[in-house]
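Example record for the data management plan.
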Amino acid sequence: MSEFFHMGGFGAYIWSAMATALFLMLLEPMMLVIKRRSVLADIKRIKRLEERKSRR
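Corresponding structural encoding:
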């Protein structure tokens, strides 16, 4: 089992690369949700501003 984690002397590189890839794969959907909320808030703000202008 330890040989599996050691990976022929490259274990530190391989496992850190795997951890980085996993982190980025988990981060991407979270960033997309944050960006979507931001865009929707901007759209709502713009619509409110346009409604105020049309009332004048």
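Summary line stored alongside the record: The chain has two helices and no strands.
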